[in-house]
Amino acid sequence: MTRELSTHEVYAQLGLQQSAFIIDVRTREELERVPRLIPGAVHFDPEDVLQWRQKVPANREVTLYSAAGRDGGSVVNVLSQRGLRVSTIAGGIGRWMSDQLPTIRIRPELGVPGGSHWVTRERPKIDRIACPWLVRRFIDPQASFFYVPAARVRAEAQALGAQPYDIADVTFSHRGPQCSFDAFLAEFELHDPVLDALAQIVRAADTATLDKSREAPGLLAISLGLSASTRDDQLLLEQAMSVYDALYAWCKTARDEPHSWPQPVANA
């Protein structure tokens, strides 16, 4: 029997390494009626499950959700027959939204969901790594990112059909005291207290306001060190993803966990 999860059970694992692979299995018509996604979800049309089933990673649990009132039973059967561990979200996207849990705004003009393309300046440090992490983990897991010389970002954006970010005078960039990471959160209407806490660290590290976050100097040091030790920007991105995974996990689960040395000695 397929396991049914509550919305809060799914949210508790959202964005963590042990989280499930989340699939939105609403029809195109249902998606248009409610143009929001659970963060980190991919959308696959349930009618085409035989075509996309091989895209689902075999080493992760799969969690499906549909519109309220539909259980996605045919998709569950197909994926279960492939040997995947499949669960569903009770109440679907309707329950998720009524529980006031975070969602993202669908942006078809940007290729979200389903394989957006982004381009920015080469030799990334803070924002140009943090934004790809945010997109791949919460906005569009199928997104592609390109790093090019600064003078060529706009031309390459046009040639690649990509959206430029973290350069002057574009939508996804700095806005006053805020950085590009903040712009992505705003443009996709992604409102989550854990990501807000992470955004404060990223913003302070990226805008030379290190006094506004005690964690920001550490993020800056690690980012500069990664850049100095890795010349390939795509490799740098892949290496840095785990840094932001760890920061996110700390913001979500470990901010109140103490650590000290030496360990206290128990009374004899």
Top keywords for this entry?
alpha/beta, 2 domains, single chain, globular, Oxidized Rhodanese, domain 1, five-stranded parallel sheet, 268 residues, three-stranded parallel sheet
Description:
By secondary structure, this protein is α/β, with parallel strands linked by helices. It has 2 domains: 3-101, Oxidized Rhodanese, domain 1 (3-Layer(aba) Sandwich); 108-254, no CATH class. Helix content is 42%, strand content 12%. It has helices at 7-13, 28-33, 49-52, 73-81, 92-98, 127-139, 153-160, 180-187, 193-206, 216-229, 233-254; strands spanning 3-5, 21-24, 36-37, 42-43, 62-65, 86-89, 104-105, 117-121, 144-148, 163-164. The strands form 3 sheets. A 5-stranded parallel β-sheet has the order 1-6-5-2-4. Strands 9-8-10 form a 3-stranded parallel β-sheet, covered by helices on one side. Strands 3-7 form a two-stranded antiparallel ribbon.
How are the SSEs placed, and which strands pair?
Blueprint: E1 3-5, H1 7-13, E2 21-24, H2 28-33, E3 36-37, E4 42-43, H3 49-52, E5 62-65, H4 73-81, E6 86-89, H5 92-98, E7 104-105, E8 117-121, H6 127-139, E9 144-148, H7 153-160, E10 163-164, H8 180-187, H9 193-206, H10 216-229, H11 233-254
Parallel strand pairs: 1-6, 2-4, 2-5, 5-6, 8-9, 8-10
Antiparallel strand pairs: 3-7
Helix pairs in contact: 6-11, 9-10, 9-11
